[in-house]
Design brief:
Number of helices: 5
Number of strands: 6
Radius of gyration: 14 Å
Length: 126
């Protein structure tokens, strides 16, 4: 869609391209390039240099089944592919947030699942 070049670069650097092109089903919370650019200075380059950490961060953006926006609800705690859980909430305007990142575009259908565009990079709990 033109705004995910940094995500695609990170997925490739982490060796996850074939995995995410696999049969799924997957739900991917996809940060935009602007979301990656909003990370503190040096964070993205550090992640790109540390493949296990990069894989952990990227897989924290993926659910191992298909979750469409009508299935989302305030307080939902989906399990992410990296083994952690996250929390879905709603803001005062009714937007869904995943760990504070706003879902700006929901339900982009893919052959192996669905993509929800988010405005921030999710960082797994330590």
């Amino acid at each position: 869609a033109g705004s995910f070049s940094l995500l695609l670069t990170a997925v490739d650097a982490a060796g996850l391209t074939d995995t995410l092109k696999g049969p799924g089903p997957f739900t991917v919370f996809a940060p935009t390039d602007a979301a990656f650019n909003a990370l503190p200075a040096g964070v993205l380059s550090s992640l790109l240099a540390d493949v296990p950490a990069l894989q952990n961060v990227l897989l924290y953006h993926v659910v191992g089944n298909t979750v469409y926006s009508p299935q989302l609800y305030d307080g939902m705690e989906p399990g992410m592919v990296n083994g952690d859980t996250t929390t879905i909430t709603r803001d005062d305007q009714g937007n869904f947030l995943i760990n504070g990142a706003r879902i700006v575009t929901a339900d982009i259908y893919a052959d192996n699942g669905v993509i929800h565009v988010i405005d921030a990079v999710l960082i797994p709990p330590q």
